[in-house]
Amino acid sequence: MVTLKTPNTPANWQLFEWIFDPTGYLERNQSKLGDTFNARLGVNFDRFVFISHPDHVRTILSAPARCFDAGRANGILGPLVGDNSLLLLDGAAHKQQRQLLMPPFHGDRMATYGKMITQVTGQAIDRKPQGEPFRVRSLTEEITMRVILQAVFGLNEGGQYETMRRTMSTFLDMTASPVKSSLLFFQSLQRNFGPWSPWGRFLAIRDQLDALLYAEIQQRRQESPEERQDERQDILSLLLLARDEQGQGMSDKELRDELVTLLLAGHETTATALAWALYWVHRFESVRDRLIEEITALGDNPDPMAVFKLPYLTAVCNETLRIYPVALVTFPRIAKDPFSVGDYQFPAETVLAPCIYLTHHREDIFPDSHSFKPERFLERQYSPYEFYPFGGGNRRCLGMALALYELKLALATLITEHEFTLPPQPPVKPVRRGITLAPSAGLSLVKTR
């Protein structure tokens, strides 16, 4: 068996690096310690192992779900999403909840989102001034917030929409920078010293969001099942109709936690991916020109599914998700029993974290890995253990299909209906935003036509 290597820096300093310089932390330690190393992050677990070799990633992602406690490993997200979130469940509870949540994200349901995504995108960019720099994040957040609120609640305008949008945005902003993200990683900061303390403010905003969600749930429950089925096609209505094998529906608390999970995963992550895509496309003129040529060849008002299937658009979006994946690691797994990965033998309670970022930057798989080259996805097909921006196994992102659909349609709409330039600005760098990796806040574009 191979001895597991550990960085020799103190645990608190490693956690500081992981929060404020996550990509640097990963690259420095991989360079010194190899593809597999044990981090001391002080986040409830002494053994937190980063793994990036595709063969080892395959071992973990293809192992039976009974080998791990994956929900328990995501406890850091508990204050955000709640204990009944799919992200924090294990075993039969996780399997059952996943089955209940799956229908809105597959099959015919996807086709209903296409027109809405392109319409929302067009409305959002029309509101941006011409000839003046605007923050890219403000645009992508508006698009993805409108899409997810319409998909989940059927809300797109009006007072109820605006209240939900404003409250959700404020809630997510609580972890929108490395400093703010510290609230999730340091339990010592999770103390309520009143409304002016960081944690007190977080709890107050969460209570405001909860009040809105529970009120919406109660209003929907008062509707008859026939009304929900005939008149409403949003995700909340479908979840209220969903039943498990025993004929039981979700409780209000379960619905609340899953709704927050959907809002967080469906809005925050897609906004980040779209911001990165807009940056890369406008940094390289040849990429933008080729992409526009491919999209416009479909003619006026192309079918959304035809846009979704375009090969170069797919390659651009894949390369965007490869070079700076929104999630640095898959959802970690805690080994229930001793678990072998290659020549390593890990004891029970070891946290195993396949590292998406490090795998996506292996030079033996992605040569010149820090360069943006969409062509690599036209020249080769990668295995789900070499390219896995949405994780894998029974923990793969449930909303992957909708996220890719939205990313492709929004990007295609923006670059074919408007022209943009990158104004002079500080270098764009990846920074932590909660548990995700986003472009630095100053990223701007100018709408020129």
Task: Supply database-style keywords.
about 450 residues; five-stranded mixed β-sheet; about 50% helix
Based on Cα principal axes, name the global outline: globular
**Residue-averaged pLDDT:** 89
Distance between the termini: 62 Å
C-alpha-based Rg, rounded:
22 Å
How many alpha or pi helices?
A: 20
The total strand number stands at: 12
Summarize the main sheet: 5 strands, mixed
Secondary-structure-based class equals alpha+beta
Low-confidence sequence ranges = none
For the biggest β-sheet, the strand order reads 1-2-8-5-3
Q: What would you call the quaternary organization?
A: single chain
Helix percentage range: 40-55%
Proportion of beta-strand residues: 5-15%
Summarize the structure.
The strands form four sheets. Strands 1-2-8-5-3 form a five-stranded mixed sheet, sandwiched between helices. A three-stranded antiparallel sheet has the order 4-12-9.
Topology (elements, then pairings):
Layout: H1 11-20, H2 22-33, E1 36-39, E2 48-51, H3 54-61, E3 68-69, H4 70-73, H5 78-81, H6 91-101, H7 108-126, E4 133-135, H8 136-153, H9 159-173, H10 178-185, H11 198-221, H12 225-231, H13 235-241, H14 252-283, H15 285-296, H16 304-308, H17 311-323, E5 333-335, E6 339-341, E7 344-346, E8 351-354, H18 356-359, H19 376-379, H20 400-417, E9 420-421, E10 430-433, E11 436-439, E12 444-447
Parallel strand pairs: 2-8
Antiparallel strand pairs: 1-2, 3-5, 4-12, 5-8, 6-7, 9-12, 10-11
